[in-house]
């Protein structure tokens, strides 16, 4: 029994990859003037890397990038992303803040950044995190797509062991899932915010992860993180910590946020969505909507700030 | 489909750097098959570890011996995953 429209889609439950793909197609079909689907590449196993583009027109508009589902087992992230997508089409034209953002910016939303891994969590191993690359010379599968980016690639805070959960891969951008985003970002050339969404530990992280040295914009990014986390907390009291990846959580090399920042995208954040200390990666489905709702408030703060502070 | 019967997720709160160091040592013991959901970094952050059934006794003994405080965050991971699957199936119907 497939939902016939995105109104019928069950946002309160987790979904398979094919259901999420169907959701995207329905959303595009229902909102042809606002939403389109871009295929920015193929995964290691040949699955389409789909990105929803929300645009009210214009050419060469600045863009805001949001990705979810880069770590396969973090199911709450594509579930939240699906809710964000519906929220955008529902609120455009009604919410003045979002409308103003979309009148100036395009929003790009990649719901399942690591589709091979996501599919594998449904079919074979719910605890799978990495891509599904076969590593020559090793019986261990997969690369951590959040250690595979060029900035700081290969440094401490990533592993050269293919059996490690933080295996960096045979080379920077070796993962087609990562390379597709790199190519898209470079070809677009005008992304102004880059938000990559993970779970869980309730954090908002900005560059750098590779080094303890502060990034040039640390003061502004820190202040904005405070505003965003305050907005997030206002809904259900979910407490977030924030700071640079290095200082807040651990040294991590070759991560998305560092790369995006070094590409010149100032408003570059990693989110670690909620857990209340009971479920970790197995957050119950009844927490999808509250998680998405509170995260949306933080995203809006960052997107509005991006709009109001051109650079 | 891989099953996780008897796997527990332990939430460990280290109280000093020495305990963090011990947990890092623990993470290097590959034969235990531990899955660090959150890593040992700093006393301010809890360390969550998925411990396979076959390693539970050893890990608990290690923590007990070193007097490292922990709580059971997930009693049996497979129970939770079965519930998750049931909810997905029910939602489809």
Q: What would you say this structure looks like, in words?
A:
- The complex is a heterodimer of chains A (about 300) and B (about 90).
- Chain A is of the alpha/beta class.
- Chain A has nine helices and eight strands.
- An eight-stranded mixed sheet of chain A has the order 1-2-4-3-5-8-6-7, sandwiched between helices.
- The mean pLDDT of chain A is about 95.
- Chain B is of the alpha+beta class.
- Chain B has helices at about 15-25, 55-65, 75-90; strands at about 10-15, 35, 45-50, 70-75.
- Chain B starts with 7 loop residues before the first strand and ends with a helix.
- Chains A and B meet through loops of A and strand 2 and helix 3 of B.
Concise synopsis of the structure shown:
Chain A has 311 residues and is of the alpha/beta class. Chain A has helices spanning 17-30, 76-91, 96-102, 115-123, 176-188, 218-236, 245-248, 256-262, 288-308, and strands at 35-42, 48-54, 63-68, 106-110, 191-199, 203-206, 241-244, 267-273.
> What percent strand of chain B?
15-25%
The chain-level mean pLDDT of chain B equals 96
How many DSSP helices of chain B? 3
State the share of residues found in helices of chain B, binned by percent.
Answer: 40-55%
Global shape of chain A: globular
Sheet with most strands: strand arrangement of chain A: 1-2-4-3-5-8-6-7
- Residue fraction in strands of chain A: 15-25%
Task: Identify the notable features of this structure and list them briefly.
heterodimer; A: 311 residues; alpha/beta; 8-stranded mixed sheet; 9 helices; 35% helix; globular; B: 93 residues; alpha+beta; 4-stranded antiparallel sheet; 4 strands; 43% helix
List the helices and strands and how they pair.
The complex is a heterodimer of chains A (311) and B (93).
Chain A: H1 17-30, E1 35-42, E2 48-54, E3 63-68, H2 76-91, H3 96-102, E4 106-110, H4 115-123, H5 176-188, E5 191-199, E6 203-206, H6 218-236, E7 241-244, H7 245-248, H8 256-262, E8 267-273, H9 288-308
Parallel strand pairs in A: 3-4, 3-5, 5-8, 6-7
Antiparallel strand pairs in A: 1-2, 2-4, 6-8
Helix pairs in contact in A: 1-2, 2-9, 3-9, 6-9
Chain B: E1 8-13, H1 17-27, E2 35-36, E3 47-51, H2 53-65, E4 69-74, H3 77-92
Antiparallel strand pairs in B: 1-3, 1-4, 2-3
């Amino acid at each position: 029994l497939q939902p016939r429209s995105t109104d019928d889609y069950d946002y309160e439950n987790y979904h398979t990859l094919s259901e999420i793909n169907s959701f995207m197609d329905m959303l595009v079909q229902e909102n042809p003037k606002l939403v389109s689907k871009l295929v920015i590449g193929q995964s290691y196993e040949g699955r389409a890397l789909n990105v929803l583009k929300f645009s009210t027109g214009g050419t060469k508009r600045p863009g805001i990038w949001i990705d979810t589902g880069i770590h396969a087992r973090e199911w709450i992230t594509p579930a939240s992303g699906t809710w964000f997508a519906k929220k955008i089409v529902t609120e455009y034209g009604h919410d003045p803040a979002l409308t103003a953002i979309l009148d100036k910016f395009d929003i790009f939303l990649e719901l399942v950044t690591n589709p091979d891994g996501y599919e594998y969590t449904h079919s074979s191993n719910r605890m799978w995190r990495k891509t599904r690359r076969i590593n020559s010379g090793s019986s261990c599968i997969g690369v951590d797509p959040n250690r595979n980016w060029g900035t700081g690639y290969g440094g401490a805070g990533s592993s050269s062991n293919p059996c490690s959960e933080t295996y960096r891969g045979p080379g920077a951008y070796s993962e087609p899932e990562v390379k597709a985003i790199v190519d898209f970002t470079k070809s677009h050339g005008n992304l102004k915010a880059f938000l990559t969404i993970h779970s869980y530990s309730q954090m908002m992280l900005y560059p750098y992860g590779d080094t303890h040295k502060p990034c040039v914009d640390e003061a502004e990014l820190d202040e904005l993180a405070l505003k965003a986390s305050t907005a997030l907390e206002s809904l259900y009291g979910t407490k977030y910590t924030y700071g640079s990846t290095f200082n807040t959580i651990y040294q991590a090399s070759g991560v998305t946020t560092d790369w995006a920042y070094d590409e010149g995208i100032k408003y570059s954040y990693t989110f670690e969505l909620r857990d209340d200390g009971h479920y970790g990666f197995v957050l119950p489905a009844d927490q999808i909507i509250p998680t998405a709702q509170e995260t949306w408030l933080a995203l809006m703060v960052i997107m509005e700030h991006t709009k109001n502070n051109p650079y | 489909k891989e099953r996780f019967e008897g796997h527990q997720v332990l939430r460990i709160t280290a109280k000093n750097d020495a305990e963090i160091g011990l947990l890092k040592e623990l993470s290097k013991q590959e034969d235990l098959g531990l899955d660090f959901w959150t890593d040992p970094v700093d006393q301010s952050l809890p360390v969550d570890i998925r411990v396979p059934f076959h390693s539970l006794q050893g890990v608990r003994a290690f923590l007990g011996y070193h007097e490292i405080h922990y709580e059971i965050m997930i009693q049996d991971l497979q129970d939770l995953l079965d519930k998750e699957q049931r909810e997905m199936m029910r939602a489809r119907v």
